[in-house]
Amino acid sequence: MLIEALWVQSRFDGRSFCSEEEVEMAATVKGANEDVNVTFEDQQKINKFARNTSRVTELKNEIKTKKKTLQNLQDASDDLMMLDDDVEVIPYQIGDTFISHSQEETQEMLDTAKETLEQEVKSLEDRVSSIQQVLGELKVQLYAKFGNNINLDADDPE
Question: Cα separation of 28 and 2, whole Å?
């Protein structure tokens, strides 16, 4: 269908590929009982839906990566606790460099890094939630106008 083609194209380039006149003149979706014109505003909503869907996917991948890093920090912290007390210095990687610290300093640095990552993950999860709210509103609007002529659930980022 034309709307799905417009949505798929906008999903890949993240912007409208038709001018307002082209959308108004050429974009007519033939439904079972009626014709529905795709206006420039409708195309903008479809594009916004596509961009937000893509952004949610990116954010979820970023959250997954940060959670994996967080788990690695937790594992390092657990391993640090199991070390003998006679170990004087522990190498801690900052960028590409290892810096030696005492066991207590290293534990503090790990705890700080974990807290920072936890805050970042929470912030990203909040952003995903707000974007999903926008996606829900756009779905309602687009399904209200186009009904079964548009499919927005195919790549639903859950």
Answer: 8
User: What global pTM score does this model have?
Assistant: 0.70
- The vertex-56 CA angle with 55 and 59, nearest 5°, equals 85
Residue range 103-146, pLDDT digits in tens: 889 999 999 999 999 999 999 999 999 999 999 999 999 999 98
Contacts of 131 by beta carbon, 8 Å cutoff, 6+ apart? 52, 55, 56, 59
Q: DSSP string spanning 114-136?
A: HHHHHHHHHHHHHHHHHHHHHHH
Sign of CA dihedral 101, 102, 108, 113: positive
SS3 content of the chain, % helix, strand, coil (to 5): 70, 10, 20
pLDDT digit string, tens, across residues 60-87: 999 999 999 999 999 999 988 888 777 7
For 149, residues 6+ apart whose C-beta sits below 8 A from its C-beta are 1, 3, 29, 31, 36
C-alpha–C-alpha distance, residues 39 and 70, integer Å: 46
